[in-house]
Design brief:
Radius of gyration of chain B: 19 Å
Largest interface: B-C, 45 and 45 residues
Number of strands of chain B: 4
Helix content of chain B: over 70%
Number of helices of chain B: 11
Structural class of chain B: mainly alpha
Strand order of the largest sheet of chain A: 6-7-8-3-9-10
Strand order of the largest sheet of chain B: 1-4
Number of helices of chain A: 9
Order of helices and strands of chain A: EEEHEEHEHHHEHEHEEHH
Radius of gyration of chain A: 18 Å
Largest sheet of chain A: 6 strands, mixed
Strand content of chain A: 15-25%
Chains: A alpha/beta, B mainly alpha, C mainly alpha
Oligomer: heterotrimer
CATH superfamily of chain A: P-loop containing nucleotide triphosphate hydrolases
Distance between the termini of chain A: 36 Å
Order of helices and strands of chain B: HHHHHEEEHHHEHHH
Number of domains of chain A: 1
Structural class of chain A: alpha/beta
Strand content of chain B: under 5%
CATH architecture of chain A: 3-Layer(aba) Sandwich
Largest sheet of chain B: 2 strands, antiparallel
CATH class of chain A: Alpha Beta
Helix content of chain A: 25-40%
Shape of chain B: globular
């Protein structure tokens, strides 16, 4: 099969309780596969499993056909799985450029060089600039990350993942804590870069989800209750019930 | 502006000229400070640049001296370069073993296990008779440093020793400066600021920390080697955790994560302690008070003070 | 070694382990609840031992001395928390290490000023100054049995407290949930001060009751601190159960290490190497289970 990332029967138990239970999903280049569900549905756990931060209790993950059993986050990253975090996880007291530089350098075989100055490797900064451009951060390059607005910090969060040149992008609530305007901007940014990646998107903002997703999976209590085209899933009775009988648009 | 360029040059000139008018005692004391700066700088590489708070770093300082003492024949000098390399390399091996163990832990666990492993070495040297036990060992004849018979340094001569130490200190500072400005240093920064993310973007942080740990231990070994040559004796206290604790204090006092910090911190604390010792037998009490106050009120160290604000 | 000797050594090892547990649990408690690494913890042990020695001289009554000593240590804990420790709660470990390291120097020097640098011994209180005859020529001292029993009682009280109180819940939750602790809405400042003083008292109490069986000497604080660190690393941080198991393990290994003879190439490597055996155990744990026997994976 040609999927860039695929999970089969993925299960994670925490002291006997199933946080994720036999989830199967896949995603291919250019596609956005959104995962939604109420709080505690296991979405973040799913992302942590796919990125190697948690080891599954059962099931398997294939990245570009390779079974990645036992891979930790570092190996997953090197294999081409990039991720962003729900709680901003960047280098707060470094500049945006330096944030990107660290991430970019992870793809070059220079990190064990001790004596040449970083400036003698202009390639790193050149690639960082490209990343910043794509995420419209270039004007902020020399600002410290912790001096940026929340929305801008969320962009840096994504930039760090992009800078590692991933094939698969796992986005854990990229819009978390954002205002309406910032959200729109982020949706626009994601739309611009979508063609290069297989994206798995966990998000609460339904407007964003329906604006972006090609495929929608709904999780409740760790299980997938519905999966398919967004228009179809939207009308599913089970999904409507899961959202407490309310409208899926919340 | 001019001051900032002239001042370092003046200090350097002062250091170079010190033996010309200095009393024997002061030259020895100055050498002692220079040796300590080497050691404190190596600890700063771990604590200040990589965020690894070690309380067992003295193990490498002392062990280096022990290697020299063990290798030195009783009645003839050892070749300086052989002894130097042997000390640094043995400590590198010890650093790799200790590092491989302690780096499997994080945060407070790391602090505790570095302290414990350092003390393990202390008890080993103290309780067994393999290396002189609690009395330590003497280096009867100092290593012989000469190049093809036409150039010779007498390490028992305080002035010669002073210049050797000064040169090695400068080399060490240059090496550290280059390391932190290199791609490797960039990864260390990443680990210090946010290790979790650094792992997630594809760095095997354990490997980088281990390499850094070994480098730091080898630089500490340079200091320990010189200390052993200077005193002509090594004892278990050299690897003890009070040496590590003091060095940690000097890192903070000067300003962690800067090349200048250990220089300022070490010099200041050693001068202050020298003053205390003249005041009272219980000078450690005053040192303790200074440490508490600095840790509470000056966490960025002297480098964080206004006069140093824009210095490199 | 015959069976009786092994039995006696095992009793000694358990007794040492229980004592270590008291010290190490104070360390774990303070870290688990307040997130502070207190390397001055061993100093309180040392202070306790010297207090016991002083009070025995002044009051002449071990029990009264014990009581007064615990009160003094508790007050000392309150004062120290107020003066220094409370400023360290949201600081990084480096600052905590340095402030408490400074305290070590201060205490050690004060000890030298007040009590001098001599080694002292404290007499076993008359009430417990006997021994139980095991065989014709082997006996086991009553004092050691009493000491172990006291440690066990305190340990049980601690386990009960941790299982059944909200504070205990916080300890089990560990450092990562310190925000939750704050959310519980109790006067956290006072609770912290109380816990710190409790930890200090525990350490000092251990020092006091150990004084009659070990000598009272200047370096005893540093020694017990390091062994406690080994205990905590082996047991897993924030785990009282782990501290108990590790303390007993360390106590037994250390005790048997000192009486074992093991010849390698004709050289007896014990008991000189006995001091190393517990560190070797720690190294093994670091190699195979770096989070400690009962620690959670991080």
């Amino acid at each position: 099969m040609g999927s860039l990332i695929e999970a089969r029967g993925l299960t994670k138990n925490f002291s006997g309780l199933a946080a994720v239970s036999s989830v199967t999903l896949s995603c291919d280049r250019g596609m956005i596969h959104a995962v939604i569900g109420p709080n505690g549905a296991g979405k973040s756990t799913l992302i942590n499993l796919l990125s190697g931060e948690l080891r599954p209790t059962d099931g398997q993950i294939l990245v570009d056909g390779v079974n990645v059993k036992g891979y930790g986050p570092t190996k997953m990253s090197l294999l081409g799985v990039g991720r962003s975090y729900q709680r901003t996880n960047i280098y707060p007291n470094l500049s945006v450029l330096e944030n990107c530089n660290i991430a970019v350098q992870s793809r070059l075989e220079i990190s064990m060089r001790f004596f040449g100055a970083v400036t003698s490797y202009p390639d790193v900064e050149a690639r960082s600039k490209q990343v910043m451009q794509r995420l419209q951060l270039d004007s902020l390059a020399h600002k410290k990350a912790n001096e940026l607005s929340h929305g801008e910090q969320r962009q840096v969060e994504i930039a760090l993942a992009l800078a590692t040149e991933p094939k698969v992008l796992l986005l854990d609530e990229p819009l978390a804590g954002m205002g309406a305007e910032e959200s729109l901007r982020m949706v626009e940014l994601l739309r611009n870069i979508r063609s290069d990646f297989a994206m798995i998107l966990v998000e609460h903002d339904m407007d964003a989800v329906f604006a972006l997703a090609d495929h929608l999976t709904v999780m409740v209590n760790g299980e997938v209750i519905e999966s398919g085209k967004p228009e179809v899933v939207r009308l599913s009775r089970r999904v409507q019930e899961a959202y407490l009988g309310g409208d899926i648009d919340e | 502006m001019i001051l900032r360029k002239v001042l370092p040059a003046l200090i350097l000139l002062g250091l170079v000229c010190l033996p010309l008018w200095g009393d024997r005692f002061y030259i020895q004391f100055a050498s002692k400070i220079l040796v300590m700066i080497i050691f404190v700088s190596s600890l700063n590489l771990l604590v200040g640049f990589t965020g690894l708070v070690s309380l067992g770093h003295a193990a490498f300082f002392g062990f280096s001296g022990y290697v020299l003492a063990i290798l030195s024949p009783l009645d003839s000098p050892m070749n300086f370069f052989v002894a130097f390399l042997a000390s640094i390399l043995s400590v590198g091996v010890l650093g790799a073993i200790f590092g491989a163990l302690v780096l499997r832990t994080k945060g407070i666990f790391f602090i505790m296990s570095t302290l414990a492993l350092g003390e393990m070495l202390f008890y080993f040297l103290h309780d067994t008779n393999l290396a002189g036990g609690s009395d330590g060992m003497y280096i009867n004849v100092r290593p012989n440093l000469s190049l093809f018979d036409w150039w010779h340094l007498d390490l028992a001569n305080v002035i010669h020793f002073y210049y050797l130490t000064l040169i090695l200190l400068f080399l060490v500072l240059i090496v550290i400066r280059r390391i932190i400005a290199s791609p490797f240093g960039r990864v260390l920064t990443g680990i210090r600021v946010n290790e979790h993310r650094t792992k997630a973007i594809g760095y095997n942080t354990y490997k980088f920390k281990l390499v850094c740990f070994v480098i730091a231990s080898m630089i500490a070994a340079v200091g320990g080697f010189l200390a052993a040559v200077q005193y002509g004796v090594v004892n278990p206290e050299m690897v003890g955790w009070h040496v590590s604790g003091h060095a940690l204090m000097m890192v903070i006092l000067g300003g962690k994560g800067t090349v200048l910090g250990p220089v300022l911190g070490t010099t200041t604390l050693m001068l202050v302690e020298e003053g205390f010792q003249m005041l009272t037998k219980h000078w450690q009490l005053l040192t303790g008070v200074v440490i508490v106050l600095v840790a509470l009120f000056l966490p960025k160290g002297l480098v964080g003070l206004k006069i140093f604000k824009k210095a490199p | 070694m015959d069976a009786v000797t092994i039995f006696i050594q095992a009793m000694n090892g358990i007794q040492y382990g229980l004592l270590l547990f008291l010290v190490a649990s104070g360390l774990t408690l303070i870290f688990g609840i307040m997130g502070v690494i207190n390397i001055a913890h061993g100093s309180f042990y040392m202070i306790g031992a010297y207090l016991a020695w002083s009070f025995m001289g002044w009051i002449g009554n071990f029990w009264l001395g014990l009581f007064v000593g615990v009160v003094v240590a508790f007050v000392l804990g309150l004062v120290l928390e107020f003066l220094f420790i409370r400023f360290l709660y949201d600081k990084d470990h480096l600052q905590q290490v340095l402030v408490t390291y400074g305290l070590i120097l201060i205490f050690s020097e004060l000890r030298s000023v007040i009590w001098g640098d001599d080694v002292h011994s404290v007499a076993i209180p008359a009430l417990l100054d006997g021994s139980i005859q095991l065989t014709e020529n082997l006996a086991y001292p009553v004092y050691r049995i009493w000491l172990s029993s006291v440690c066990i009682v305190i340990a049980i009280l601690m386990f009960l407290g941790i299982q059944h109180t909200r504070l205990g819940m916080m300890i089990r939750a560990g450092e990562s949930d310190r925000e939750m602790t704050k959310a519980l809405g109790i006067n956290i400042g006072l609770v912290y001060r109380f816990i710190f003083a409790l930890g200090v008292s525990l350490a000092a109490f251990s020092g006091m009751i150990s004084a009659p069986i070990s000598s009272v000497f200047p370096g005893m604080g540093g020694q017990v601190l390091i062994v406690s660190f080994v205990v905590v690393v082996i047991g897993g941080l924030g785990s009282i159960k782990g501290a108990m198991v590790a303390a007993l393990l360390v106590g037994l290994i250390d005790t048997f290490g000192k009486v074992t003879t093991l010849h390698i190439f004709g050289v007896n490597i014990f008991p000189e190497m006995a001091g190393m055996s517990i560190f070797a155990l720690m190294a093994l744990i670091l190699m195979f289970r770096p989070q400690g026997i009962f620690g959670r994976e991080h």
